[in-house]
Amino acid sequence: MKFYVPPKRKPTIVIVALIDIMTVLLIFFAVATTFKKSQPVLKVELPEAGSGEKASTQQPLLITLTPPPNERVYLNGQEVAIPQLESRLKEERRKNVEVNIALQSDRKASFGLVVKVMDIARKAGFEQLPAFIQPEKAPPGSP
Length: 143
Fold this sequence. Notes:
- The protein is an alpha/beta fold.
- The protein is built from three helices and six strands.
């Protein structure tokens, strides 16, 4: 008795399905990378505080202070010498009267530099100078 044996076919890969999968992966990675938050240029360890409040949604000018030994001041990521900081802040105030500023200082930055920058900001017409902080970690066992 002879059984029917179908002819052997060569295995094939359906290329259309692979193209569809690659297109979906390409779109996924393109969208995922556009939503990635920008990484800070400067590595700053923020001080901790328990009484901090959430910042407003308006993007402020960011004054960043780096720790010793190379204490430097940055305004929105661009290095600024202390003597030019006041004029730069006044210039930003002239461009936009409603502009806000915020202070981001490393916990090891000298207190003298922080006070000097705060004084310069007040002279430039900024009454409030909020600071970025790291929320305190709750001690173990506390609610």
